[in-house]
Design brief:
The protein has about 190 residues and is of the alpha/beta class. Helix content is about 40%, strand content about 15%. The chain is globular, with a radius of gyration of 15 Å.
Length: about 190
Amino acid sequence: MLPLQIHLTLPPWMGDVADIGRPYMSDEERVGLAIELSRRNVAQQSGGPFGAAVFDAESGRLIAIGVNRVVPQSCSVAHAEIMALMVAQQRLGQHRINQAGSRYVLATSSQPCCQCYGATVWAGIDELLIGARAEDVEELTEFDEGPLPSDWIGELERRGIAVRRDILRDQARSVLADYGAAGTVY
């Protein structure tokens, strides 16, 4: 019989990093959480060096968090952004998280790859905040970020998604550099 269910999990330590009781109001606080998630994911050996979080744009309320779980979950789509978006969709009970009119922010430790870029378009994100750039990822690790449209920022903005990048870029690069230097894949 073929499996009829997909089961993906996030590591239990994540609840120790994210504070659901406080608002995350600034871009730096939001991307800072994503970077800390990526740093902890590497330190705990629970996945690759990527973290993401979804926030209510107005209140700063944390909706969902995610980290890279590709290797531990044997699932090529278990990227940090995808995990955070799926948790947000389940928590809000909406396949497009902004369909009820609220605005949502996706904060990432690194620029979304081609897969996560597409998910950002369809998931109902209104703002995308980015730490490290794709070229940082490819320079400091062995990850291939895949093809994006040459004007990927313009494409997102034409769809109503504001993009801000290089937020705490040096901190995000540091996590990538540490992961790349270790030579371990998880």
